[in-house]
Amino acid sequence: KAGVTQTPRYLIKTRGQQVTLSCSPISGHRSVSWYQQTPGQGLQFLFEYFSETQRNKGNFPGRFSGRQFSNSRSEMNVSTLELGDSALYLCASSTRPGRDYNEQFFGPGTRLTVL
Amino acid sequence: AQTVTQSQPEMSVQEAETVTLSCTYDTSENNYYLFWYKQPPSRQMILVIRQEAYKQQNATENRFSVNFQKAAKSFSLKISDSQLGDTAMYFCAFMRVLNTGNQFYFGTGTSLTVIP
Description:
By secondary structure, chain A is mostly beta strands. Chain A contains no helices and eleven strands. Chain B is 0% helix and 57% strand. Classes of the chains: A mainly beta, B mainly beta.
């Protein structure tokens, strides 16, 4: 079974631009979560989607948004990029959210550099 | 608020030796999970081990084991017989169980180098 895939793997943008990142979960997985990874902050939760609905959201400004499609693929958008948005953006998929544990499987990430 | 603290940014260990990575967390929740994830250089993050908060017995996965002290809110990872392939960034994570889904909180990571 193919793992979680993220595209593109690397991206360079300038301040003020917007960017869209894509995540394809493992086949059969319907929950997708996004994280921002920076050296000083570790991983910070952005949001989680299930059945095309945002279920949980972390503490990020409204410039960060996302969506999920009917095939469970998810996109994350960042508008008006700032230098501090430079990070590795990780996507993780699981079978479903719920009141018990479902293992998350991570993708390789998209390395975003904002100049 | 939930927080996860890893106080050791970098550690090293000789091959075949044992090393312990520290993690503390803060929560008022009673139902949660704890994890250690491994992120090798330029490779994907993978789950090393998990611990359910309601279980008193410490989790073990081959050479990896945890010391879970619920009252002290401590969750350390012990790697026995360290191998070169253990070189990676290790993240401690806390998962909060919500009606709307699960929410993860990660520490800032410990970079472990296994020295030949």
